Structure formats: C-alpha cells, structure tokens
C-alpha cells in the first residue's frame, strides 16, 4: 500500500481549500452560527494520508471511466454520521483505509440525519471530502420522521437517537445495486484488512452475519413481562438464540429485502410502545428477529464493550485472542476520555487514528 506524504505546503493548500469551501457555504441559506460551527469543525481536522492500492488490486485506470459504486469490485461499508460522533466516525474511516489492502476499492455509504442541528448532509459532504479528498463515498439523507414515532425510551438517552435506527432501513436507503454491505458503528477501529470480513459468506437464507456470544445471559435483554408472556416468549421457537452486537454486521441486502426484515423489526418496535418488553434501544428488535439465525463470524471482528456498560463509564480490558476490530460500545468513548485526561488503557489504541487535530500552517519560506 502506498501512502502520499503531506508537506507543509500541502497542509497550507488544504487550509486554503477549506476556507474557500466555507466562503462558498456562506452564500447558502444557513444561519451564521451554523457557519461558524462548520468552520470550527473543518479547521479542526487534518487531511488524512492518501492511501493507494497495493499489489494485486484491480487496476484503477482501467475502470476509472465506467466504474460506479455499483461496481462488484468494491467493498461496501455503511456508517451513520452526526455531529456528536463525527470525530469517532472519521477515525473509523481512517482505520479502514489505513489497513485495507485495496483502499481505493472501498466505498462508504454515509447516512446523515435530515435535521442534525450542526451538520446537515450538504455540509457533511464538504466536510468528509476535505478530510478524505480521494475517498469513495456517498451521503444519504435519513428521514427521522419514519422512525421517530416507533422509538421508546431507553436506559441511556443516546440510544434513543433516531439515527441509531437507520440500519433498519438500509435496504430502502441504499441503491438496489448494493446487495451486500458491512455496517459499522462510529465508535470502532479496524486493525486488519476489511476485505477479510467482506469475504465471509452468509450461508443458506441468513441475511446477516456477526460475532455471536452464546455465553452471555440472553434473557437479560428482555423484561420479565416478555418472558412471562407465553405467546411472546415462543417467538424463538426451535431457534437457539445468542447475543450479538449490531455495531458490526455483514448484511445481505438482497435477502433483507426479500425477507421484509424492516417490517418485522418495526412490528416489534410497535409492540414495545404498547407493552414494554425490553430496555435497550435498537438492539433487542434485531435479537428478536435474527437471534438463532445469524452467520457466526470470528470474535476478533468485534472486540466490543470497551466503553463500559450503558450506565456508568468503566475501563474494560480486551477479550483474550486475536483482534481485528476494536469497539467502544457502551457509555464511554475514547475521544471524550482522552480529552478529559482520564483515558482507559484501550483508548490509546484509538488515538493514532484520530484526525481531530489543529492544522498548523507553515510560515517558513
């Protein structure tokens, strides 16, 4: 993999480009306070290195004229992006590119909230492009009104964010030609080639694949009223459900669409509004629909729980064994703890991918 080195002159040029972008945005119908917020965010990031394909990758010059994001040579990744988790998302993208054997053949489908108070989708596109000038990506608008009335209260307010539920609608949001995608949360870091995860095959009718944790107490993810209801508790039938974390999933969107899984998830969310059957946010409906029917993926692809539990911030060590993906699921986020000078040991593994650093323009001639 080749990496283009950044010179002081290139950093200066990047700063000028960002300022021109902001001046352009200034003529758009945004409030002045929003412009200042965008300016602060854009100038708060350094430009990522320009990662290029390694040996054995498809020749880009042969595909340049005809290639679109529908091209089968792409690894498709989808992530949500909002102002609160922007820093984590940029670090996640950086980590994917840094370890990819063919970074030019990774395509990011970025889902943004329609009414984010700080970073709307149009501004977001300029922001991502300023940080990753050669990134293959597309920004999609998620209409929060389609899910807002289905969301019930959770044990942590952050879990009630409508954007957390965008993964339920990927089959509708993404172009029909995208029939397979890796979904990643914003608080992950990859330390391995993403194509290895992409190459995992989903067997039979399985629409999703994820690391499973069958030793976890599956019953605790649902309320006593759920388990005491003989009709509801029989939903798993002959399935042997195991806990899996929805922050890292390999999804077959063709099977997803055929199985009407969006509607099945929504039906459980509607029931939750009438009769409280779980406490967490977007996870339990996935467990209800897919528990016991998930393609098991090696645990190294989701070393989760590094953010502690959902109530209090606590430090957790890595699980034993190899690691390909680190996941700060839970309340604590590495960028917050690092800024507060209270990092956990695992947070230092996240820090090298952080691009949120002041741009220093060289004054030397």
Automatic annotation (TrEMBL):
<dbReference type="InterPro" id="IPR050748">
    <property type="entry name" value="Glycosyltrans_8_dom-fam"/>
</dbReference>
<comment type="pathway">
    <text>Glycan metabolism; pectin biosynthesis.</text>
</comment>
<dbReference type="GO" id="GO:0005794">
    <property type="term" value="C:Golgi apparatus"/>
</dbReference>
<comment type="similarity">
    <text>Belongs to the glycosyltransferase 8 family.</text>
</comment>
<dbReference type="GO" id="GO:0016757">
    <property type="term" value="F:glycosyltransferase activity"/>
</dbReference>
<keyword id="KW-1133">Transmembrane helix</keyword>
<dbReference type="InterPro" id="IPR029044">
    <property type="entry name" value="Nucleotide-diphossugar_trans"/>
</dbReference>
<dbReference type="InterPro" id="IPR002495">
    <property type="entry name" value="Glyco_trans_8"/>
</dbReference>
<keyword id="KW-0328">Glycosyltransferase</keyword>
<keyword id="KW-0808">Transferase</keyword>
<keyword id="KW-0812">Transmembrane</keyword>
<dbReference type="Pfam" id="PF01501">
    <property type="entry name" value="Glyco_transf_8"/>
</dbReference>
<protein>
    <recommendedName>
        <fullName>Hexosyltransferase</fullName>
        <ecNumber>2.4.1.-</ecNumber>
    </recommendedName>
</protein>
<keyword id="KW-0325">Glycoprotein</keyword>
<keyword id="KW-0735">Signal-anchor</keyword>
<keyword id="KW-0472">Membrane</keyword>
<feature type="transmembrane region" description="Helical">
    <location>
        <begin position="12"/>
        <end position="30"/>
    </location>
</feature>
